[in-house]
Amino acid sequence: MDVPAPPKQIRQSPLMKVGVVLFAIGMVAVVAVFVMFAAGLENLPVWLSVAAGVITPLGLGLGLVGLVKEARRAHAAETAETTASPGASASGA
Prior knowledge:
- The chain crosses the membrane at residues 20-40, 46-68.
- Keywords: Membrane, Transmembrane, Transmembrane helix.
- The chain is an all-alpha fold.
- It has helices spanning 14-38, 46-84.
- It is built from two helices and no strands.
- Helix 1 (14-38) runs antiparallel to helix 2 (46-84).
């Protein structure tokens, strides 16, 4: 009976974790700006508007860069595993 090997766990990139946290903080700032504006406040704090406008896309960008790096690392590991296995041949014959 052939038991398949468990899938290898790929470490999540710290860049992606930072990106997700920053994006979440930025989204909270966006919601806060909308709620404060809907409540009738006109002079919103500048730091809150900056957080909503800068931190959200920064987090999204970092998350995407981390995702691409993670995917490349997984692809490289898969390729190295395939070429290193004794049953695989390059010609496919």
